[in-house]
Amino acid sequence: xxxxxxxxxxxxxxxxxxxxxxxxxxxxxxxxxxxxxxxxxxxxxxxxxxxxxxxxxxxxxxxxxxxxxxxxxxxxxxxxxxxxxxxxxxxxxxxxxxxxxxxxxxxxxxx
Length: 111
Known about the structure:
The protein is α+β, with helices and mostly antiparallel strands. The chain has one domain (3-104). It has one helix and seven strands, in the order E-E-E-E-E-E-E-H. It has a seven-stranded antiparallel sheet, covered by helices on one side. Strand 3 and strand 4 (35-47) form a beta hairpin. The longest helix has 25 residues, at 80-104.
């Protein structure tokens, strides 16, 4: 099962091909600071707890966060349409963050 610690770890991202039983296809990603970076696998899942994440932050000190989601899942081939949709959002976000970082540096970066 995917688990993140302070936004870093593995996480299911996206939902595609919903059926009447509540099952859908999602993709498991490696995430860094909440941003999906590398798709690992796609899964057909059925949420066991209405899609709510289990928050285990009370087990940690210093305000760290730890969460996990309970689902029944079976592997399916990687859903490339879903992967491309996620990258269509993540790449501009990362580009903006890089631009903002260099824009805010005193004197800027000269190449």
